[in-house]
Amino acid sequence: MSPMPDARASLIHVLRSACSGELAAVHAYRGHGKSLRSDAPERERVLLIESEERHHRELVIGLLAQLGAGPSAKREALFWCIGNTISILCRIGGWFIPMYGAGRLESTNIKEYEDAAKFAQAAGLTDMIDCLLTMAEVEWEHEKFFREQILGHWMLRFFPIWKTPPPKETIRAPYALEVGFEAGVEIEDQQRHGHAEEQRPTECAL
Question: pTM of this prediction?
Fold first, then answer.
């Protein structure tokens, strides 16, 4: 299949969006973590998610560099402000709102990395696909965590829960990548043990 002429530009656009989104997420989750009680069981996971989002940002910057591009300065400034604003609001917004907002946001992050993988494939940049799918899988785990936290909460009567993402297996299924499927499984196992450093896939070590 010949590369699509617009796929490379679309990939850069999506990666720039993801890069700025991860910047906002890092700041937002830092405030979210600090807003939770020190003995709250979910606090450690939120701080771990912050670390994972920071790593995703590093990976995306590396992918952009491979494409001869970089983050958008305007988007970076805007999303720095958004992330820090959310960080402050997390400390005054109670328990439910930050959990709800994070879950809804993570559900969109899954698709963003899936879209990036599709554009990478269309552009003939197949070496990027596994890294992008791995990040989508990690975002899927994030969404699952936040969804499980709020299920059954009384405020869902006023805040309808977002659409459940497709099963995790569907993220990688269209690509049939043997190298990477095993990496994705390994990452899932490592996440269960909560080792942020260990779950960085070698395929994404840019």
Answer: 0.82
